[in-house]
Structure prediction request, 280 residues.
Amino acid sequence: MNDETPAATGKPVFFIDSNMERAELHPFAGGRVALFCVKSPDRESANQDSAALIPCPDDSGVLVVADGVGGYAGGAQASRLAVEAMAEAVEEGIAAGNKLRASALNGVELANKRVRELGTGAATTIAVVLLQEGRMRSCHVGDSDILVVGGLGKMKHRTLSHGPVGYALEAGLMDEGEAMNHAQRNEVSNIVGIPDMRIEIGPRLGLAQRDTVLLGSDGLYDNLFEEEIVERIRKGKLEDCAGALASTALRRMAKPHRGEPHKPDDLAFILYRPERRKGA
Prediction:
């Protein structure tokens, strides 16, 4: 485990251009997180996926995953700027006494401003989860998606990917198998770094003791079907859940197998689970 844990320092921890061998575990926001971030197996360039853990007072916090696009160096820079802007806005919001939701939205807007100022055409997705008082709320831009899964496998929340395939899937115009192999699967119509960026805000959800929250880049969702993800994260030790996701995604990225998805890409994901209360 990284000694620079958010619980120990009270400061954000960033994962920039990471190439982990295994997931890192951290106490966070009244629970635990497992975070994994690795470069695509088919290239040596910078990891365009970034992540951050941003601790806040009173066992609250913010989880962030960003997936950069626009050339290898540009994408990596855009995702780094996004997670750093989120941390900056949240810390400033806490100091000013602002609500966490408002601070996070300011963070996405600041990220958009910083990425646009690059002037290179680079952009990034961003997926954000706010954790506070045993509840969570998502906000996102792009196709880095967020799930909340119960211990019995019930999907309690899933964000909508901002692209033609995501919208078609939501409307029932195609099934998941068709979506996984569609030519436009990785087209994104709403992203950080454009003038008309739109932030989608999810409902505020109470978290049960066995619920698991997942934020991930498309390196995860392009290599596992939703049912496979749910089965791997709904129960068991958090580190084992993270290991199962990572190993399956990396195996499929490395070599195509008949009937299984295959798309080499950078990969970043965060799992969060609230701590079980004593006596429960």
